[in-house]
Amino acid sequence: MDEEEGGGYETRIPSQGLGERAARGAIVTVGGQVVRILIQMTGVVALARILSPRDYGLLAMVVAIVGVAEIFRDFGLSYAAVQARTLSAGQRSNLFWINTGLGASLTVVIIAGAPLIALIYGQPELRRIAMVLSFVFLFDGLATQYRADLNRNMRFGVLAATDVVSVMLAAALAVLLAVWGAGYWALVAQQLGQAVIGLMIVVGVSRWIPGKPSRHEPMRHLLRFGWHYVSAQLIQYVGSNADSFIIGTRFGARPLGLYNRGFQLLMAPLGQVRSPTTSVALPVLSRLRDDSVRHDRYVLRGQLALGYLLVLPIAFLAGAARPVIVLVLGDRWSGVVPIFRMLAVAGAVQTFSFACFWIYLSREITGQLVKLSYVETGIRIACLVIGSRWGVVGVATGYAVSAAIKWPFSLWFAARKTQCPVRAMVRDATRVTAMAVLCGAAGFVTCSVVPLAPLTQILLSACACVAAIAGAAALAPAVRRDVEDIVHTVQSVVRRKGKLAQ
């Protein structure tokens, strides 16, 4: 139990064995996210057959606006706590009260602004939806520093278990309410239930009681880091949610519901796998910021792992989109297919950008991250507005184009302020992209050749074709080295003999 004894609590993570701890944490984290995604997908399959596209569209309209409050609720202080070299008990308590106060304030602001949200979209139901959803920010504010401390101390297993349990119980609640005819309120209850359950678990396992706020603790560097981070996130949020706002205001709830299902089916699970990798990478890379060789080695290995484990499956799903969508969501959601394919392109490119994001945080160049955010947000909004001339699919295409433009910009901005292995990152990403194109083409061709077979048979045939192509590509020396490196990493963790930090 963490106790405050005259302000003597302090955390400092040693650098010995970071490689093994990071790799083990990555496996635990990604494994937990895979289980979480499977649970969510089960809920998606069940709810898609009960609820309508309009139900999803109404929730997406509210989230597109009030979701910005999540950035201010965190204020970047969770990452500030994780990357700090040392963190005293007083600083930790101060961060808790700041996050809690921000969460409570945002709840009040959203309740007061709920009528305006309903007026913007011309949907009266949005007023009550926004008012109920506002309490998510209060509960998340209370949980922020509990989760940050678990992250800082590399208790990734506890974080993974928390996410799995909260998602499972919230999904079960949503399905139950949907069966009872609750409509969009089932989706609202799912969001609220996940926040409450997650808070209860992290408080229970931490067994920490925050102390009183103290004005004598050095907080400026933590708040400065948080301000730079939240500034970048705020700008990025505008760009990330401009698509939902444009579709909701121009085309209505049902088209937004179709777009939202495509986005949630691909981008949401992808984000849930990628984001926790930052929880693993940041504490390690932050402690290696003075050792450029080891720091860059971790970044390159992380990008390769994300590429092979995420980009290749994304490419396959894009090629086999039609049977996947019909099998998962049902025939009435077939309009999601072209949207899903465009978003898959965006998701693949964004995955490569994620390793660059680690560099910004670990090297403490968040000010540069803010400047980058202005550029990429402007590019994205321009692409979305132009694409909207061709409807919802045009918006999805604009989203993909903006992601493709963003990646080289992010590398260039990072290289301006710090040394980073730009050439090696581009080389590795190009190699993974070539394999991804092969996987996507194999999935598309196979599904086109046998269109009249049962959906499961089509997908199994496509998987077999992709596996054969991947096996042939693995004969190439460069690809074989990549695969061997990833396999060696897994084996070293299982045997607890990994020496990746050397």
Automatic annotation (TrEMBL):
Main location: membrane
One Gene Ontology term, aspect cellular component: plasma membrane
InterPro entries given in the database record: Poly_Biosynth_Transport (IPR050833)
Membrane-spanning intervals of the chain: 58-82, 94-120, 126-144, 156-180, 192-210, 304-327, 339-361, 432-452, 458-479
Membrane topology reported for the UniProt record: Multi-pass membrane protein
Cited Pfam families: Polysacc_synt_3
Compartments it resides in: Cell membrane
DNA damage in keyword set: no
Assigned keywords, A-Z: Cell membrane, Membrane, Transmembrane, Transmembrane helix
Coiled coil: none
Record family assignment: Belongs to the polysaccharide synthase family.
Protein name: PST family polysaccharide transporter
Biological source species: Allobranchiibius huperziae
Lineage: Bacteria, Bacillati, Actinomycetota, Actinomycetes, Micrococcales
